């Protein structure tokens, strides 16, 4: 199983960083269900912007925590680095 760390852009232009083992399902949850994070529920719709894959949940959570600690500009640079 692989784990993904992802970045979403919310309707209010804020960025959300999360971790999942099923990116499509999680994006749907963020946009459509009561199972999405509270942060994104009140900022819908959200748009997928970036992801990285990891072999273990520990690695993915470590990277998620790292990215969450960054300032917005650094997150945007990461997003823009794949274009």
Oligomer: single chain
- Strand composition percent: 25-35%
Number of domains: 1
Average pLDDT, rounded to a whole number, is: 95
Would you tell me which CATH topology applies?
Answer: GIY-YIG endonuclease
> Do you know the CATH architecture?
3-Layer(aba) Sandwich
Q: Assign the CATH class.
A: Alpha Beta
Order of helices and strands: EEHHEHH
Shape: globular
Number of strands: 3
User: Roughly how many Å is the radius of gyration?
Assistant: 12 Å
Count of separate DSSP helical elements: 4
CATH homologous superfamily, by name?
GIY-YIG endonuclease
Would you tell me the structural class of the helices and strands?
A: alpha+beta
Order of strands, widest sheet: 2-1-3
What is the helix fraction of residues, given as a range?
40-55%
Q: What is the terminal-to-terminal distance?
A: 27 Å
The largest sheet is: 3 strands, antiparallel
Give the uncertain stretches in residue-range form.
none
Labels describing this entry:
25% strand, three-stranded antiparallel sheet, GIY-YIG endonuclease, single chain, alpha+beta
Topology:
Layout lengths: L2 E7 L5 E6 L2 H10 L5 H4 L5 E8 L2 H12 L3 H9 L3
Antiparallel strand pairs: 1-2, 1-3
Describe this protein's structure.
The protein is an alpha+beta fold. Helices cover 42% and strands 25% of the residues. It is built from 4 helices and 3 strands. The protein has a 3-stranded antiparallel beta sheet, with helices on both faces. It is globular and about 30 Å long. The mean pLDDT is 95.
């Amino acid at each position: 199983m692989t784990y993904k760390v992802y970045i979403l852009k919310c309707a209010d232009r804020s960025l959300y960083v999360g971790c999942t083992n099923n990116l499509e399902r999680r994006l749907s949850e963020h946009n459509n269900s009561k199972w999405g994070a509270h942060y994104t529920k009140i900022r819908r719709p959200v748009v997928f912007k970036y992801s990285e894959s990891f072999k273990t949940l520990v690695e993915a959570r470590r990277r998620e925590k790292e990215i969450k600690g960054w300032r917005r500009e650094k997150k945007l640079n990461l997003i823009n680095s794949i274009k």
